[in-house]
Amino acid sequence: MNVGDKVADLLGLDQEGKEVRVSQYAGKKIALYFYPKDNTSGCTAEACSLRDGYEQLQAAGYEIIGVSKDSAKSHQGFIAKHSLPFRLIADTDTALQQQFGVWAEKKLYGRTYMGTLRQTFIIDADSATIERVIEKVKTSDSANQILTSIRN
Hints:
Layout: E1 10-13, E2 19-21, E3 29-34, H1 41-52, H2 54-59, E4 62-68, H3 72-82, E5 87-90, H4 95-100, E6 103-108, E7 111-116, E8 119-123, E9 130-134, H5 142-151
């Protein structure tokens, strides 16, 4: 998905098995962030940056929603362990990741495999369209990257 594309209302199911819909966040922009795996160093740094900047993000009109291939149970543990105040979508079949183009071929130590690209999509509150894509996420500064995008 690219800037200007409209996002489907239903995003998926969260850690509690509840539907996550764009329409539930009317009047707020959504920072939909995709990350590879719960409880890994980079993903934990990113989630904690968003947690630490959560009040500031909310004050700026944002809601945070995370997405990975992990199960709802894994997400529940990740949320509890790091006191995350936002929802995580359990995209176990990678359907949402494929829709957003972040389920892609990756290489590590000469091995090729399918995995999640770390990217954040800023979704407009009123039109449900993508207004910005952060492709190079700085895990420990991701909240500031979103806030900086407001000013640009």
